[in-house]
Amino acid sequence: MDALALEAAGGKKVANGAAVAAPLPPPAPVKRKPAKKAKKAVVFFEVEILDAKTKDKLCFLDKVEPNATIGEIKSMFHKSHPQWYPARQSIRLDPKGKSLKDEDVLQHLPVGTTATFYFRDLGAQISWVTVFLTEYTGPLVIYLMFYFRVPFIYAPKYDFTTSKHWVVHLACMCHSFHYVKRLLETLFVHRFSHGTMPLRNIFKNCTYYWGFAAWMAYYINHPLYTPPIYGEQQIRLALIIFLFCQIGNFSIHIALRNLRPPGSKTRKIPYPTKNPFTWIFLLVSCPNYTYELGSWLGFTVMTQCLPVAFFTLVGFIQMTVWAKGKHRSYLKEFRDYPPLRSPILPFIL
Amino acid sequence: LSIAADSHCKYIHTNLKFFAMTILRFFFTLLSRWLVIAVGLVRAYLARGSYHGLYYSIEKPLNVCPLCHIPGIVPSSVVLTGFQVMSRVFLTWAVTHSVREVQSEDSVLLFVTAWTVTEIIRYSFYTFSLLNHLPYLIKWARYTFFIVLYPMGVTGELLTIYAALPYVQKTGLYSVTLPNKYNFSFDYYTFLILIMISYIPLFPQLYFHMIRQRKKVLGHVEDYSKVE
């Protein structure tokens, strides 16, 4: 869902060992031909890669530069085994240990001049961007299909009619705005730590988003829809909450993006900025989830629809799990992490 | 120092024994409950001369039994046990108990018998295992009887749900229609049909899992005899 979710989801791949103080080469696994002949004696490494489960020798690389990165080694391994592109390789020092990162440098690892690595196939991978774009475009399109009452959904006499309640039009605008915002953020705002995720996730994620979108849209755009009990007041209040949280959510995404220079994967503690919507960082580790919850609560009150309430609840549970994981990673990584902060709800959760 | 360690070990050992005894008592209670159901069925049959209306004689213990199968205490996979508990609870409470008209159906007797026999064997198996005195016959029975009992139970369950359908549709049991202020609807009739359809992918998976378990547990005995 979010840049932070990527950290939480990839929690297993947290920095192994202390933060590397030495200057790191660029993280992108670019093949570099040694441009200059070294004058002084360079000790070349030998790298052997074994299968983590069977311990078979899969690959032997000799004359590897000492400052080669894991990313470059993955590219070399890919050459000898073309079916395992670098994104699906997990290279580790120990068959049951944590994966090494692409930026780790060979000579800084606790290996001798003949390094032994273990390989695990992560399975078919798909890029985060692709998954996000697919899972967010679905709800956008699906909701609109229900809004315009495309045939075969409701009784034929309602085909291509529009609802007589103005809150239904408002809800469509809010829902569509929300997903357009997410698509634009995926394309232009988020800086992803990991390039890819396992392929099966796209089916799982799309079922969740598309399924719930269809379920909610069916009732909101139904000819027998009942508008909120407290009428205009309720809808106005809900809209204010929704917009407030949308702006808040966007502010947090921008603040997180600015923590990280382009192309890097550094992690820093986020702090409140001049933007008042970011002041919530004083109390919460993952305010983007807090604002997201707020948006959906607003939408629930606006539509007064039980399926929307279910969707909000399920989303809240998932985001709480992610927020707690992220909070824990922060605490583990940074000694001076502000103690007042809670994972997702100030002082509560 | 070694005396302290020894008494510490004894302390843990006593506690474990107490814990094991509690579990043992729990299994034995469940075993007895299912035996009560079995006995109840037999007595009612003998008394009435036919097997109609037998459901009423065992309704109470039957409805309580599935609720006691707490996943986690029983030494099988939590997912599978949880699944089984859910399906049993669903069939006793949400179908048979709720739709009075199906209670005289033969299909109810079919799945009740299947469940009763299965559970008696199963809890005997657990009880004797804990006592470290498991007769091979019980182990064999547990991993063999299911071949007939499982399809029997599933058939009974499906037929019962199918029998309940017309009554559910007529009375709109557990269903919510539009319009209402929560903008929500639920059609129990469609839900039951979906449940029946879900048996198609689920039943073969569970069945073949049991067959694989059977090969694993009983298979090696055949290997030993071959070796000799």
Automatic annotation (TrEMBL), chain A:
The chain crosses the membrane at residues 126-146, 205-225, 237-256, 276-291, 297-322. Residues 45-121 form the TECR-like N-terminal domain. Pfam families: Steroid_dh, TECR_N. One of its GO terms (molecular function) is very-long-chain enoyl-CoA reductase activity. It is a multi-pass membrane protein. Keywords: Acetylation, Endoplasmic reticulum, Fatty acid biosynthesis, Fatty acid metabolism, Lipid biosynthesis, Lipid metabolism, Membrane, NADP, Oxidoreductase, Phosphoprotein, Transmembrane, Transmembrane helix. Its main location: endoplasmic reticulum. It is found in: Endoplasmic reticulum membrane. Residues 196-349 form the 3-oxo-5-alpha-steroid 4-dehydrogenase C-terminal domain. Involved in both the production of very long-chain fatty acids for sphingolipid synthesis and the degradation of the sphingosine moiety in sphingolipids through the sphingosine 1-phosphate metabolic pathway. Catalyzes the last of the four reactions of the long-chain fatty acids elongation cycle. This endoplasmic reticulum-bound enzymatic process, allows the addition of 2 carbons to the chain of long- and very long-chain fatty acids/VLCFAs per cycle. This is Very-long-chain enoyl-CoA reductase. It comes from Lates calcarifer. The gene is TECR.
From TrEMBL, chain B:
The chain crosses the membrane at residues 23-46, 143-168, 188-208. It catalyses: (3R)-hydroxyhexadecanoyl-CoA = (2E)-hexadecenoyl-CoA + H2O; a very-long-chain (3R)-3-hydroxyacyl-CoA = a very-long-chain (2E)-enoyl-CoA + H2O. GO terms for cellular component: endoplasmic reticulum membrane. Pfam families: PTPLA (PF04387). Its main location: endoplasmic reticulum. GO terms for biological process: fatty acid elongation; sphingolipid biosynthetic process; very long-chain fatty acid biosynthetic process. Its EC number is 4.2.1.134. Coiled coil: none annotated. Keywords: Endoplasmic reticulum, Fatty acid biosynthesis, Fatty acid metabolism, Lipid biosynthesis, Lipid metabolism, Lyase, Membrane, Transmembrane, Transmembrane helix. It comes from the Eukaryota. It is found in: Endoplasmic reticulum membrane; Membrane. Pathway: Lipid metabolism; fatty acid biosynthesis. It is a multi-pass membrane protein. One of its GO terms (molecular function) is very-long-chain (3R)-3-hydroxyacyl-CoA dehydratase activity. Belongs to the very long-chain fatty acids dehydratase HACD family. Catalyzes the third of the four reactions of the long-chain fatty acids elongation cycle. This endoplasmic reticulum-bound enzymatic process, allows the addition of two carbons to the chain of long- and very long-chain fatty acids/VLCFAs per cycle. This enzyme catalyzes the dehydration of the 3-hydroxyacyl-CoA intermediate into trans-2,3-enoyl-CoA, within each cycle of fatty acid elongation. Thereby, it participates to the production of VLCFAs of different chain lengths that are involved in multiple biological processes as precursors of membrane lipids and lipid mediators. This is Very-long-chain (3R)-3-hydroxyacyl-CoA dehydratase. The gene is HACD2.
